[in-house]
Amino acid sequence: MISLVWVALGGFLGACTRFIISTWGNKKFHPILPRVTLFINVSGSFLLGLLVGGAWNENLYTFLGTGFMGAYTTFSTFNMENVQLIKKREWKVLFVYVVGSYGLGILFAGIGFYGGTWMKG
Q: Which helix (H) or strand (E) holds 94?
């Protein structure tokens, strides 16, 4: 039961963080390339990699990994933005966004993982 509380609390904070960053970023940046979602997903990949690499305790992983990151990162928004780019026939932007999201996501997850491993000793 306590795990459910950790997930719920982490999810609440992750969703709020995503909302704040999205609201601010979407006002600041031109939406042709969905930079805000890209930033959220790449930073979430890094943070999750850091968490997994650090092999922190189970409650912290449940709170941050499942709860916070589950609500903070946004695969569904990423896919919907891709559909919108396809509909607009923005092929170059679509390519940069998809390759950038997956490439940077994997890169930063790896950096985070090895950083967490290094921090843990």
A: helix 91-120
Domain-wise residue ranges, the chain: 2-120
Torsion of Cα atoms, 22 then 93 then 98 then 32, to 10°: 10
53-63 pLDDT per residue, tens: 887 788 888 99
Structure confidence by residue, pLDDT tens digits, 73-108: 888 788 888 998 999 999 999 999 999 989 999 999
77 is in an annotated binding site: no
Known binder of ligand: residue 73?
yes
